[in-house]
Amino acid sequence: MASSKIPLLVERFDFIKLIQNVQENFDVFLPYQTEYDGKDNLSYKKYSGDNDFVLNKYRTIDPLKTLFYLTSESVLPPSAESRKRIVLGVKNCDLLALRIYDKALLEDNFVEPNYKIWRENTYIISSDCDDALQSCHCNLMEYTPYPQKDDGLFDLNLSQIDDKYIVTLGSKKGEKLLDLLYEHCNVKDAPEDILEKLTVQRDKVNKKLSEINKDFSAKRDYSKISKNQDVKVWSELSKECVECGGCTNICPSCYCIIVNDESVGADFKRIRTWDSCQLTGYAEVAGGGSPRERVWERFRNRYQCKFDFMKKNFSQYGCTGCGRCIAVCPAEIDQREVIKKLQEV
Amino acid sequence: MNSPNPFDVIKADVLNVIEESPQIKTFQLKLEKPLKFETGQFVELSVPGIGEAPFTPSSSHYQDPFEMDVSIMNAGFVTGKVHKVKAGDILGIRGPYGKGYPLDKFKGKDVLLLGGGVGLAPLRCLLLTLIHDIDDYKSITVCFGARSPEDMIYKNFFLEWDKIDKIHLMTCVDKIPDGEKWDGKVGVVPILLDDIKIDPKNAVSIVCGPPIMMKFGTFALVDKGFKDENIYLSMEKKMYCGFGQCRHCVIGEYYACKDGPVFSYDMIKGAEKIWE
Prior knowledge:
The complex is a heterodimer of chains A (345) and B (276).
Chain A: E1 8-11, H1 12-21, E2 27-34, E3 41-46, H2 65-68, E4 72-76, E5 85-90, H3 92-105, H4 113-120, E6 122-127, E7 156-161, E8 164-169, H5 174-184, E9 188-189, H6 192-212, H7 223-227, H8 231-237, H9 246-249, E10 257-264, E11 267-274, H10 295-314, H11 324-328, H12 335-344
Parallel strand pairs in A: 2-5, 5-6, 6-7
Antiparallel strand pairs in A: 1-8, 1-9, 2-3, 4-11, 7-8, 10-11
Helix pairs in contact in A: 1-5, 8-10
Chain B: E1 10-19, E2 24-31, E3 42-47, E4 51-55, E5 67-73, H1 77-82, E6 90-97, H2 103-106, E7 110-116, H3 120-132, E8 139-146, H4 155-162, E9 167-173, E10 185-186, E11 204-208, H5 211-224, E12 231-234, E13 250-251, E14 254-255, E15 262-264, H6 265-268
């Protein structure tokens, strides 16, 4: 029976037992250190006995959508697997983006078949960031580097203090995870001194984010993006863009896709694959017409989509401040700088 | 709860293929399951294993829901493949998607259809639907244009439509190449508006055609005195999915597939580059 007395406390070594013991029924995904790009990055990997996973620190390099809305999937017939999964170490920036996906893909009349399968069969155990990357800027989007229960997006959350996890319940679905926790681990109520440590830790990471983003302000007038139609301004902002589409592929909120058919013998499969509004042919129709032929038009579209259209469509900006688009850009275009410059013109 | 897969298709037998013009063919389909739509809505038609593309049916929405006509111009990859399809072949169809023409707002009014090229396809669907309920409308003015006489589709119906009392049909072609015959007007579609006999202030107009024609057609209607909110445009955008998940068709905050494809001019006037 799941206790309603929370937050709880569990030792890290003890928690590992849970992961090991649920292997038969669940695929478990966790962030691991990877030396991608010569830096210490984190990336989701399926658990296979390696206990060096990292639940704290900061976001992974790969957005959460890689586990819910795969790069390329067959939608007819749906290729998603209904095996139960637990994804651990999900950070708030990815959770908030999932809310956009839920609104876009699970609408009553048209439910995306794969997303529904992945989503329904996955438990999310989120965790706090206790550090930040130079590109991190959730604070500028007025979000926190740890999830808020009111958002209702995580099932359980783990806040790491030294070698312990403070456990909070986030959803009804999370109760099943709590049952598993009680079954496999030694669970205690989190004592006051540990909870105080958490407050200190959260203050510290908030301060770090403020320091990283000290040149930028959260008080930004996003209406300047759509209002500004000055070719010169946008051409200047986008002049380094090489149209690789990296910013949209790495973005946890971007979900644009193309749909193609593939022959399989006498039958066929319908495949949906990520697409990017930054690429030339994106909006081109038969006959060659395109509303956004030039780089600056496509560049501007991305900002409009995130800070105007999506806000109207989903009551939420299409940016959660994860900063992956900044980290990935080969032209070193910094979204924060772009918005700052737009405030000044 | 199991939701139906929105990418799933209904099998459609091709009963007949009509060559309307050198570039446009009408495919008469017999569907395995009924597909009921409202005029102005669109469907995704697929060549199995090749791909799909959005089209608006050209038959009336009052037609037997197991039957549908779709007129298609050979303009790109999928349409090129569709044009190779023959009677007896099988296509896939899914839909309907989007919002149709707001017929309630047309009732009791003078209705003007302004169309060019393959844009006559959705307008034929609308016209046939309007004819079905002809008593509901004050009058119907039909202004159809094409590049040349041989590019003008549905010519065989013109006489029949023109015989209906409430219908005033006018047609024009951009030019008459050597060896082709044409008795009507010569010029681009907006010139037909010079001869309309209705009061634009209380009339509604529906525009469908190539982007350039829609642009100048709309400007001409505004000049004539049609109100922005009474000009309805069928917007052609890249609609991969049809239900707001691929995002390719967004016009500002709107999805052409969900909020359109029919928009009143005042809704999208402010958006950028709507004519391209």
